[in-house]
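Re: the request from the purification team.
They wanted to know what the chain is likely to look like in 3D before they choose a buffer screen. I agreed to run a prediction and write the result into the notebook, where they can find it.
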Amino acid sequence: MKIAFLAPNEDMQRIATAALSAAHADIEIKPGLLSEGVAIARQLVAAGTEIIITRGGTASAIRDAGLDVSVVEVPITGFDLIRAVEKARTHGPKVAVVAFPAMVMGIDCLGPILGIELHHYIIHSEFAAEANILRAFADGAGAVIGGVITAKLAARHGLPAILIGSGAEGILQAAEEAKRLAHARQLEKVKAGLFKTVIDYAYEGVISVDHEGRVTVFNPVAQRMTGISETQAVGRPIAEIWPELELAAVLKTGRGDLGQLLRVKGKRILCNKVPIMISRQAVGAVANFQDVSKIQQMEERIRREIYASGHVAAFTFDDVLGHTPAITATVRIAKEFAAAQSAVLILGETGTGKEVFAQSIHNCSRRAAGPFVAVNCAAIPSQILESELFGYVGGAFTGANREGRPGLFEVAHRGTIFLDEIAEIDYATQGKLLRVLQEKKVMRLGSDKVIPVDVRVVAATNRTLKRMVAENKFRADLFYRLNVLRLRIPTLRERSADIPVYARHFLARYAAAAGRQLTFGDDALGLLSRYPWPGNIRELENTVERIAVACRAGRVEAATVAGLLADEPESGLRPFLLESESEDIKKALAAARGKYGEAAKLLGMSRSTLWRKLKRLGLK
């Protein structure tokens, strides 16, 4: 920050140069007295000077000129006054003081001490100095003391005058004060810059007014939203710029107005207005406002990042294995459903992969960036399912979170909610679910406020809902609301040619987890393909996992699979395996033309093993 010293005469310029050369060499020194000093001060300000050090009338003249600069006066120290009075007393015991008030503050106490009479002729302008000098001598003064202008005018009339000079002490004191002021101004600049940056780069529009209602701040967002520039707004009454804002009312009442909805240039905005209070008086007011659509976007992001964290769909249609016409047709239909926004009802037996399709539909839809919330309606007790789906406020029921909790429909906002086992929801909750699907709004338990939600519903069941509707176990209106797009997942029985694909896929996964390398033999795959798999893909996966853990050989044969599964008395495969084993032995005996030894070799077992199996299976 640039500082300059204006010296009213050559003597002070010389003293200042000597005093400031060491510790304050960065202070520029210029000559300048009174009106001449004002002209020089203007030039300094134009060159970037922010603080000027001077004294007496020059300081007053610069202040009166209204220049954008801080003025620090060189103080008249007690030593300066004593030196001047001592010189003046040589002209007589009566001494007159003709000076600006700031120059002679405290001089009265020197009269009694030095044994002289001191008379004051205070001036406030250089043009009043001459008349006061003449009056002082007319009143009997032996000499006058004062500043440079007093000394010059007295000398013009040949009258004795003593200049109150500024010594090095006062100049150094003024320099230190100027440096402190520069530091304080720099801190204010930093604060002002920070404040302006915050205001200019805020997401909200910000307008502030002073106590008269005139605009003092009009940030870029406010300019963009209102179409009014800062130069057009600042300094003008807010009632002229934007009368609908009614900011003057906040100034008048001293009370804030929060959450006001306004319309500006076709957009809805949410506005908060608060007064600036000092000593219980409104000295200004501030309004900040935001586009409602932006608030909605932020709300969506908060829901996605806080509430919906972890609710992600992992599967896509690439994870649906198989190439049979039944499954390829199902995938094609599901992709068409994904492009729509209507509810989807997925039907299929247990273990057919209904959730895989639900996740794939979500990831192929326009909601893929939103949350995917899966709810197993059969796994949640009916007493708490409602609070899980729709949320609750604090204290809604015993054991409830004191802060409340958002429901899964809120969590799924802008995404998909998957209601698995939808048929297990009790009749009363079905009615509330229907209301949410129809109105696109939820009401938390214990609350009277509705919350808009934008959620696509995908439901799934392995039961026949039409039969349940006929039996009054499922609401007909809810069924028709869900049954907009119906997708049926084929069973493994209907696409047995895909069983080897799944078997190899699961074996590779679980064998790698067990640190082994296993492959299926053709006979083993044939054995797995012929089984009806009532548990579908889930049962096949569990079976293959058991094979991967138990089998240590590199190749999994039919006999190994059959032997392993036959040891499970509760296994649904046992009757099938016995029948399949009988068929394999019959075929081997037919191929060997009844020769047991050759048949045993074809089956990969000893003759004695073949005899035991024949006996156990009751074959002749």
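For the purification team: The chain has a mean pLDDT of 84.
Please add any questions underneath this entry.
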